[in-house]
Structure formats: structure tokens, C-alpha cells
Amino acid sequence: MTETFSTLESPHLEFAFACTLKFTRIQTIPDTPSGGMRTAVYVDEGRFEGPRLRGRAVPNSGGDYAYFRPDDTAAFDARYMLEEEDGTLILMRNRGFLWGRAPDAMERLRKWAFEGGEPVPHADYYLRAQPSFECPRGKHDWLTRHVFIGVGERRADGNHVRYYALT
Q: In terms of residue numbers, what domain contains 67?
């Protein structure tokens, strides 16, 4: 992290890393008593890279358990392991929201992701995340002392998210 930091009047975001995950396996619990549905997608593979860390997502180390509310907003709760190139394991918990800016965007996103439909422009949906991390003391424990936000893009076989630290 640089010496620039947030003030009350001027929050400062610093790019931390980008993460691209592939998840092609899905399970669904439809029609839950609360009116929505639960889905689970499992991490098949992935990479992350940034100014201070890079590595891979550990395959089959977790997934995203999204609850699709009756308003068709996906409230996601994901957990998976990242392995830094130096061998350090980092548990990432990622929570956030995915919803359509256009009335049919979520349906188009599902068709794209699970039925080979047409890509959906990023401007048609909102995908934002707020991760937290666990790792050993040392070189990467700065991850455990910052608030992060992520701006994401859905892809046919997963997500690409750029994460920023609030300094």
C-alpha cells in the first residue's frame, strides 16, 4: 500500500488485485420457504494478480452460495482458498450483490452462464463484492487489516472481479 490514505472528506481506493474464477458446476434449491432460491457454484479454477500478490484459486476449495431473493437480487456468500505464488494459503470470504439494471438482465445472465446464451453487457447489471481474508502473519497479513470492495463482471464460465483497498 502507498502512503496515500482516506480522510473523512475524501475516501481513497487503491487497486489491490484482480481475480478471475471459473465455476461450471451448479446446484439449485428452488422455491425456498422464504420465496427465493439458493444456488451453489463451485470453484473449478482461477487466478489472481495484483501489485503485491499473485497466484491461483485452489480448485474445489469452495464456492459461491447465492440466495436469489424474490426481487431477483442475488445475495452471494462465497468462500474459497487462494494460494499465493510463495505458497501462502489465504481464505477469502466474499459477500455482495448481483442484480439487473434492466428488467430482464438477470434472466439473460442465467441464460448466458448456464445455457450458452448471448453475453450480457456489464452496464446491464450490478456486481459488487466486499471480501475479507484470513492468512498467517507475515507478508500478506495486510489483507486482514483493510476494508476492500470489488467491482465485478460476469463471464460465461465465472466471474472477474477487481478488488480495491480502502486506504
A: 13-166
